[in-house]
Amino acid sequence: MKISENALLELLNEQDLTFCTSKFTPSQLAHLYVSSALLIEVMSFIKEQLWLQDKLDQDLDIKTTYEKFISPFFLNELKEIVFLQEFLIKSGSGNISNVLKNAKTIEKNILKLIKTRSKDDMKSFLIESLKEMKSHFLSEEKFKEAQDQSLGYQGLRLYRTFDRLDDIFNLNYSLDLNMDIDRVTKERLYQGSGVGVQSGYSTILLALHRIEAEVGSTVIDLGSGYGRVGLVCSLLRPDINFIGYEYVPHRVDISNIACKALGLDEKLDFKVQDLSLKSFKIPDADYYYLYDPFSEETYKYILDQIIEISTRKKVTIVTKGNARGWLSDIAKKYAWPKAVYIDESNLCIFSSL
Ligand SMILES: C[S@@+](CC[C@H](N)C(=O)[O-])C[C@H]1O[C@@H](n2cnc3c(N)ncnc32)[C@H](O)[C@@H]1O
Question: What CATH number does the domain located at 169-351 have?
Fold first, then answer.
């Protein structure tokens, strides 16, 4: 068993959760963070499933024991955290809320602690956490693919499980609440939406994994929001260049502050830019990321520029939403290869020849 797995079990068994974690390395703290965030999601999932089981038991006039109820999950969606099986069985159904509360405290304490450490420690913590998160998302994707699609996926979802990692980047979405927007703009600025419109960590990590960007290549996020995509990419792939363009200035400021705080600014840059302006031309890049950013008119203007670039060099477009249909037409017209769908078809990836 990993030190972090042991530590998590020890912490969960302790009454006092104001633990001394100074003995842990950033990488051990990362494992501990990922496990505690997972446990929070798992306990909420178990709570929900137990409620369904109880209803079914009532209908059938039977009583399923907690061990019998919980064990099959560890053969399937909870396979990755089988080290918690014994503990969860022992703590019983009456303790679910308590375990959930303790896992939340552990997660909060780790995030607080890592923010008191050096820049290098924070960076190592983030890199290790992201790597481990990626492996969980990949397993989840595989597991979902193996499920009977016609029934729809009903199991554990890790989509928002690691959102609190934003604390380390200091991504303060509350600034969106008082957004002073230009009432005449036709752009989709998602005012007030906060974290909801940023790519989830799962989406970013699965996309980065799939594109296998070459060393020295350039990725551009068109409508970069709070910079999550660039921050994650630069941490995991410091060998690639990343530019994010974003209309809303406070989002760009927050992105750049996070980037500098982690010393990522050599290859990562966020710029304030209204991409609909005819005075601005998109620079050449190898990869363009478009997470549903634009009005139809701007989308078409941007796609025309990317098509022009694709006549000179190979480009890959990672996209969501509206652009999918338009890009399928473009791909057909220019005989590009078939698009690849990932993240439960949330994203599709088009590449030119
Ligand atoms: C859905 S968010 C995606 C943010 C980020 N790319 C991500 O995936 O986490 C789209 C962003 O595009 C920005 N946007 C919309 N129109 C824009 C324009 N004309 N120029 C630059 N950014 C724009 C919005 O302000 C918003 O922050």
Answer: 3.40.50.150
